[in-house]
Amino acid sequence: AINPEYEVNRIGEFLRQTLKKTGLSKVVIGLSGGIDSATSLMLAVGALGKENVHVLLMPYKTHNPQGLQQAKDVVAFLQIPQTQVEAISIDAAVDAIKRSLGISEDDTVRLGNIMARVRMIMLFDRAKKRDTLVLGTENKSEYLLGYFTRGGDELSDIEPVQHLYKTQVYELANYLGLPPQIIEQSPTAGLWHGQTDEGEFGFSYKEADQVLYLYFDRKMSIGDIKKKGFANAENIVKYALSNQYKHKVPYSLSPKIKAKNT
């Protein structure tokens, strides 16, 4: 469990100080209607003021229409001025790339990756146009599991909830008072019909978060974690370890350059 009030204050100060260091005063966020982006948006509005937060909605055809409506509901709930909200369909861009590369509609993973990358192109373009930072929405569970698209939803300038596990984001969302329909929906990246995070994993966030915490934070062995009653521990850890390369790329012969203290 977390101390929600402490986290809200901590994250708010982090956002304000980071913007101060960069010399910028605003952020732009891609809002999907899911709990991570809704919570991140609410934190940014609370810390920076709604006048300093731009919201981008980027729907694709009929994919996840419920998510689009929920994103609009979040905007209305937070009373974000319509001048701060922009909706851009990614249909044309995604379909053009799909045709060029010969990707079929059935190739859901490749198509989903393209959708994530197109959205990130649009976010960074809007950040340049409006002189803002891109506010990310990744949580610690997604990060450790490698559940993101390289060059897509992993890219951002500032991450407000990346230090929190998914179940902790739920705690924060409840504390902040997000609408029940946002909190109670099944987590999904909205990349194809019926897609859910937990359906792809084969395990729940509730189980994964406990195992990930014990393995990565507490440094416990898989065997010891199993003894605590987590029969799925090996599958969860294997899933995470199979994607650890995503945190290490690009591989290079050159040593990492470190700035000298000044």
Helix count, per DSSP? 12
CATH-defined topology of the largest domain: Rossmann fold
Number of domains: 2
Major sheet: order of its strands? 3-2-1-4
By CATH, the architecture of the largest domain is named: 3-Layer(aba) Sandwich
The outline comes out as: globular
Query: Could you describe the largest sheet, including whether it forms a barrel?
Result: 4 strands, parallel
Main structural class: mainly alpha
Could you tell me the radius of gyration in angstroms? 19 Å
Portion in strands: 5-15%
DSSP E strands, number? 4
Quaternary class: single chain
What's the rounded overall pLDDT mean? 92
Order of helices and strands: HEHEHEHHEHHHHHHH
CATH class division of the largest domain: Alpha Beta
